[in-house]
Amino acid sequence: MSLKQRVSRELRQLASIDRSDRPWEMPVAAAVATGAPIFIGVAYGQLALGLVASLGALVFMHLPTTRLSHRMAWLMACAFGITACHALGLLAHLMPLLVVPLIAVITILATMVCRFYAAPPPGSLFFVMAAAIAAYSPAQGGIALVQLGAFALGTVWAVGVAFLYSLHIVSRRGLPQQAAPPRPEFGFVVLDSVVIGVFVGLSLLAAHALQLDRPYWVPVSCLAIIQGASLRAAWTRHLQRILGTAVGLLVFLAITQVRLDPWGIAAVLTLLTLLIETLVVRHYGLATVFITPLTILLAESGHSSGLAPEHLLRTRLVDTAVGAVVGLMGAACLHSPRFRAVADAWLRRLLPSGADNGV
């Protein structure tokens, strides 16, 4: 294949738009779930806590398309799990040297659970993001406990919105045909999760070695890339994420030039969520354009000592590049038969005899 043909194929792959059968009500419900806590926080003069609650409300995105009883039980379990991840991230302030292994272990466990129960995207992404943002937030002592309470309330609100949305969508559209979930396999559940967790930890270690400011976005970028279904998918996501982040940083810079008040920040974040949930199933790169300003605003807007917008632009682009490169390396290992055979044999030797039979 010539260079021209390779470039043409890459451009077609990057520009391809997928079809979506997602109901239009879902992005609207997601925007209500994540936007309302910010408006409530602003009304009480607590924008920072509203943003933390909105971060917890991202658990809404884990709502499956199953029968009502199952989807609510699963979402409540996810709400508990993501709150625990955020709490562990806050506890990392007491032991900063353990933050890298902590994020790696959280990634391994969250990925194992999501894969064992065949959870659809975003998988373990928000669990890791909640832990990473908490680990590098400036909250300390009693403020951290208040922040954790706001985060938990955000998950409760999201579950309530999900219940009302589910009642509406099931009554109108019924349930789609559900394929039988695949039987969990050791390689898919355990091996993949361990490899993913190790590379997420390595990405954060690289961020510390490079002395990046608030490097919570590095492990998130790494995880988003390495979770690709194939090496080809991981490479496409690698390109889409870097290009989308670059454009998204320009969108963030444009937002900062408007000098929004707290009510304006709440409105912009709600609109960004609506756009992301409309686009993410169609084109990941386009969604990343809006994911970038959303995450920066969620993580930084409530901090009076926040970084200058120009500095945030540089650090976020470097964070994304570092995480994407390590994530692509991890994806190459994950989809290498030789690497998998060696890692599989090594992991099985670590387990007690017969311990892997139930996976």
Question: Would you kindly provide a written description of the structure presented here, covering whatever features stand out?
Answer:
- The radius of gyration is 20 Å and the shape is globular.
- The N and C termini lie far apart (42 Å).
- It has one domain (24-175, 182-358).
- Helices cover 74% and strands 0% of the residues.
- With 359 residues, it is mostly helical.
- It is built from 14 helices and no strands.
Domain count: the total is 1
Strand fraction band?
under 5%
Low-confidence segments, given as residue ranges, are none
- The total count of helices amounts to 14
- The backbone outline, from C-alpha atoms, is globular
What gyration radius follows from the Cα positions, in whole Å? Answer: 20 Å
Task: Give the biggest sheet.
Answer: none
Sequence of secondary-structure elements: HHHHHHHHHHHHHH
The total strand number stands at: 0
Alpha-beta classification = mainly alpha
End-to-end C-alpha gap: 42 Å
Q: How confident is the prediction overall: mean pLDDT?
A: 84
Fraction of residues in H or I helices: over 70%
Keywords: Membrane, Transmembrane, Transmembrane helix
Protein name: FUSC family protein
Main location: membrane
Membrane topology: Multi-pass membrane protein
Fill in the keyword field for this structure:
359 residues, mainly alpha, transmembrane, FUSC family protein, transmembrane helix, membrane, Memb_transporter_dom
Compose a concise summary of this entry.
The chain has 359 residues and is mainly alpha-helical. It has helices spanning 3-15, 25-43, 47-57, 68-91, 99-116, 125-135, 141-173, 186-209, 217-226, 231-257, 262-279, 284-300, 309-334, 337-350.
